[in-house]
Design goal:
- With 329 residues, the protein is an alpha/beta fold.
- It is built from ten helices and 13 strands.
- Strand 3, helix 6 and strand 4 form a beta-alpha-beta unit.
- Helix 2 packs antiparallel against helix 9 and helix 4 crosses helix 5.
- The chain is globular.
Length: 329
């Protein structure tokens, strides 16, 4: 087909995206969604994912996902399944899960959802061999939006379908106290949530976070992150990207995250039609962060929002875990 219909939520309308961009620059803290905004950024992220993601580089991680898919599929008795990929990225994992479900004779619907039109189209293309296009509903939205997205995700599918939400590789890039309540708000009583979390390996949490720093502190990650600034007119020679390990800013969650900051070495300016942003030499802007969790911490976070962990699969490296969840009660 030469045409694909994509629904775009108001959270990603130009005026709202522009508002979020200005807010990010004001706070000197870039909303992670702006790293997936263009085709160029999408291609750089896909290259980075291929080179460093454990699901691509670690055969045990790949096997862990495969087992989680098989075990999760066994729990679904319904004949009709609506898979909703939250932050679908390139859709590779969703496509594998869909293929497994199709092999069991299930009737499938698929909603690949992301903030990036480019990502949604990549995911739609990946799933097209498994799900017919009249049952695939690409949807662009910002999950951090304050608006209720629950009804939109089920608007085109019969309410008799069992809904299976996936949320792969996304939870580290959100503040936990923000994203977990939003996930809880999306889930209905019989829905399932299958998601992955980056974990700190080993018995010592702090040492575990330090061990995985090279997965972020590398040239491919730098190239991907700096694209946001170069697209706004900042040259790479105007500063340097550095990676640090820092505590959760509130502190009561006792979490650590890896963050990337661009520190300006000279006075620099970003000129937008609405406003000019000036950065002094020595000033920095946060480009990115990624939390590292523990299995016990994940259970506590979800439990506070009424979400129970039904099963979990942890890689031998202890760097990644997949969790199957359902709303309690």
């Amino acid at each position: 087909m030469s045409l694909v219909s994509v629904r775009i939520h108001s959270s990603q309308f130009p005026e709202n995206v522009r508002r979020d961009l200005i807010h990010s620059l004001e706070k000197r803290e870039i909303n992670h969604k702006f790293h997936y905004d263009s085709i160029k950024q999408t291609q750089k992220w896909l290259a980075l994912h291929q080179a460093y993601s454990p699901s691509r580089t670690d055969s045990d991680c790949d096997a862990t996902y495969a087992k989680s898919f098989v075990d999760a599929a066994k729990r679904i008795r319904a004949q009709t399944i609506h898979l909703i990929g939250l932050g679908c990225g390139g859709g590779q994992k969703d496509s594998r899960l869909l293929k497994l479900l199709k092999g069991q004779g299930k009737e499938l619907f698929y909603t690949p959802s992301d903030v990036s039109v480019a990502m949604v189209l990549v995911a739609e293309q990946a799933a097209s061999a498994v799900v017919s296009r009249n049952k695939c509903f690409p949807f662009v939205c910002d999950l951090a939006s304050d608006e209720d997205l629950a009804e939109i995700f089920s608007a085109k599918v019969s309410r008799t379908a069992t809904r299976l939400f996936t949320f792969f590789g996304m939870i580290p890039n959100f503040e936990p106290q923000v994203i977990v309540p939003k996930l809880a708000a999306l889930l209905r009583r019989n829905d399932l949530l299958l998601f992955s979390a980056n974990l700190a390996p080993g018995k010592n949490y702090s040492s575990g976070v330090e061990r995985i720093l090279p997965l972020y502190e590398n040239e491919l990650t730098r190239e991907w992150l700096i694209t946001f600034l170069t697209d706004l007119g900042i040259e790479t020679r105007q500063g340097k990207t550095r990676f640090v390990i820092e505590d959760h800013p509130v502190g009561n969650l006792k979490l650590k995250r890896i963050a990337a900051y661009f520190q300006f070495s000279r006075r620099s300016v970003i000129d937008l039609p609405e406003r000019r942003f000036e950065f002094r030499a020595g000033e920095q802007i946060r480009l990115f962060f990624s939390y590292r969790h523990t299995t016990a911490g994940i259970t506590r976070l979800l439990g506070k929002q009424g979400i129970s962990v039904l099963d979990q699969w942890i890689t031998q490296s202890e760097e990644e875990g997949v969790f199957l969840c359902r709303k309690s009660g």
